[in-house]
Amino acid sequence: MKTVSEFTFSSPQDIENFRVIKDKATIVEKEFDTSSMQKGMKGTIKITVKQNENSENPFSIQSFVKPDEEIKIIKGNTYEMAFYARASSPVAFLVQVMTDDSPWEMPAKNARYNCSLLQDWKKISYTFTADKTIEKARIPCFILGQVPAGTSIWFSSIKLDTIKIEKKDIPKKIEAKLSLFDMSDSIINPLTPSILRWVIKNTNNIPGIENGTLLSYEINDYNGNNITKGSVKITNTSYFEIPVKLPQGYFEIAFSGYEYPFGICSYPLRENSDPFFSIATHLLMKKYDGKKEAAIKFLNKSGLRRIRDQYVFKFINPDENKYDFDTDYQFEKLHTWYNENNIETFFVFHTMKPQWIETQPGDQYPLNFIQCQNSWSGIIKHWNTNWCAIEVWNEPDLKKAPLDGYVALVKAFRYALEKSKTPGNKVPIIGGIFSTPFVEKKFLEICERNHLLDYIDIFSYHTYFYAETIEESVDYYRSWLKKNNKTSMPIWITESGRSWPVGRIRPTMSQGQVSALDITMKAVESKACGIAGYYPF
Q: Which residues of the chain have pLDDT under 50?
């Protein structure tokens, strides 16, 4: 490992190398600070956002290191970008290595990182391999435009290293596309002989895998330790099989020359799982591709007993007196497959509205609620016995429309549900559905004034922050419910997750471990804090 550039901020003069670019609607202060250092630090740079009236634009505030000498990123080299940071309150922002001048570009798609901070110091590090040379780079650029006013962030020990990579013989690239014959086959019973089958699809008539090809593979465990190696001779250019017998755990099988590995879950089937830990699938948002039924079988074998999915409203009721309960999205069949696999479903009425319902141009909410409730009544009568709950709309705090329009929409849906429900079948309505664990108080006040909590049964929000913020976010919303005499109202987190750096369809094993660990930590914290339902997306 060779250090390309390092900034320790050891004296007040170093503040000149830490630049801040902002627009006219923001006020940002920076200062040299030694009052809250971690052991080994020589100094820190403190950035405080005093005013931010353009928080919708993430690039309205940018800060970066401007060294005395230019920093060059060389194509083909692998780099580690690392720094320490903390914040006065929970905050998230983007970090990226990029050019220091126009045209603005990065040396690689994964030269960026989604950073989230709490009050304690945290080391942030990520790696990327440059696919282009940049003669003059910012290392890194902190994209702070969405940081709320009143927030302070401290930075220290910013360092860019070149990582030495051991050169290996590069196997011939497989041009064909490989996919499991059935997604649910990737879940097997421990220490039980199983057969994994792959389908071969040669792309654009390129003979990626031909008869007689010897395809090498290796199977590694969760820690990257090799379990077994082998090869399979291709005798049919449409598919091939590999027999496996694995202990309990998670494994990956990688084929020589193929870009992505495949995951294998080896664990006993779970029949009576806690529905608290569920998943947001959004299978209904994708047109039928022949894989949906296998995906639902996979969920069943995973032990999941409840899912969150989304209706595309405009396709179900395209005309005022016409319903299409299947469509190209196969809504009807998905209900059947979920039921056959013993999976409870709760659905989101998504923001895509039928054109025949009156809507103000550019607005997110319908104007004619009579039309809405009539439309919903037909859908409710057809499907309500399939629902364990229903969410009305999604992330209304992000819509460019007054939030009281969202509350009116919830009231209209409550009316349609009460009017249409099957006797003895009460479907809970989920409301709130905020995009963040700390939605602005002005949104809560609008919901409060318009009596949202009197028309919903469950309150929900989404979080892509780190697990350490769960306790604080639950307290934030639970205090608001208590203030409005709804202390016992259940809270669900209906979207959560931790993404890996952009640029890959699937994560590397180490990137996947970071995602899995944070998702699991948030589930544990949520359960401990009284959250009633948790849905990674």
A: 166
